[in-house]
Every structure is written in structure tokens, then in C-alpha cells.
Amino acid sequence: MLKVSVIMSVYNGESYVREAIKSILGQTYTDFEFIIIDDGSNDTSSSIIQDFFDKDNRIRCITNKKCLGLTVSLNKGIAVAQGEYIARMDADDISMTRRLEKQVDYLDTHKEVGVIGSQAYIIDDKGEKIGKKNLAQLNIDIKKRMLFNNQCIHSSLMIRKDVLDDVGGYNESFLKSQDYELLFRILSKYSVVNLSEYLLQWRSHAGNISYASRRQQWDAIRARWYAIWRYGFSFLYGSVHILIRSVWYLFPITVQKNLLSLSKK
Question: How open is the CA angle 3-99-61, to the nearest 5 degrees?
Fold first, then answer.
């Protein structure tokens, strides 16, 4: 059985997708298939993907005739994946060379763990390092802090395929924060951990900052609601955070942005 299926969805990602693909194809661990979903791109993403496809037989391409969104596209990738482990990758991020190797080694030796993530360097649109994402490492700490905010970086995750099949994949009613809702479901049944190593370069730009998307904020509130009503997380703790996030949601985007800027000074 193939060990790893890397799944990446691309929509108009011409600015960064080349670097993302190279970072996967250049991994020290090589026993993988790379499933790339072109989600109806109308820029040059398709030709960039095709160029890599022509040169590396580990790449499998799925082309959506129109944009279906990240959630549906990821479920399409999972449905055809042949790997024992599913590794996520985003089209604007960069995986460190030993990412897959280290995550496979961990899952192979920790059968009780369903999902493994990592820490990440934060890079800007030019690829310059501007900070770090430091997240909880142990399952108990991740579960404790999840209602406050997501303790895993989506594109750093490697998930056992049978765990994804068991919980039902991504919830397609979540256009955004789909990873957040999925992790709550997984945490209710399986262990989730983050390695201490920085195995990803996570790109920070307007498209993936929470204040830039009302839908992302709303779906994150919904994910917390599901967590307390469906997946057994603390009702009291969850309700407090839902209230706080709901009040925050009522502020206009410009006010949110200004308040966040002030808090960093």
C-alpha cells in the first residue's frame, strides 16, 4: 500500500503554487502520490501544474470545471487517495525538506495518534521570514486550547486515512474553517499532536488572515458550536468563547483590522 497521499487544492495560485509544488517534490521522503486539484482556476495555475505533471509521475491531477471551493475539492482528493496517510498542503505555503519523513516516522511509531502537525515559520508574500507560529504540542493541551483558537496549521497536517474515513471527511457546509471543525470531530475520538519542529513555511497575506473573511469568522463560531453540542467539548468554556467571537464578529472589518494593529504596538 502506498504510504502517503499529499493533497493540495489550487485556485488562481499562480503567484506561489510553483514553490509549493517544488517543496513537496523535493522531500527526503519519496513514497507518496501528490494529488493536485485545480479548482477552476482562470490564471496560469493550470499550465504550471501541467508542467510539473509532465515531469513527475507521482503527481495526479483533478480539474474542476468551475470553482467548487476548498472543502469540496479536498473531499474529492481524499476520495481517490491511495495512501495510508493523508498530508495536507496549501498552494501558497512551503514544506520543509524533511516534513513528510518526520511525520511518517512519528505516525509509524505512535499508533495511538490520529493526526500530526508541526510548528511553522511565518513568511510574507516575498518569502521572507517574519515570525513563527508556536502551537501546543500534546493532545491534552491542544484539546484544552482548541475552543480559544485552532491549535493546528491546516497545511502542516498529516492524518491517518482510516481516521478521516471514520469521521466522514470535511463537512461541506463549512466553506471556511473546515479544518477547525474537522479537528474538533477528530479530537472527540482520536489523539492529535504537533511536533516541536518547524516543518512548514506558512505564508501570511490578506487572503488567509481571519479579519479578511467574514465567512471564516462565522464558520469558526459554528465550529465551536458544533464542538460543544455534538462533540463533547466544555459547554461553559465553549459558550464564553462563542459569545466573545460573536461580539467580535459584529465589528466591521475595518474596525477589527485597526484594533488588531493597535494590539501589536
Answer: 55
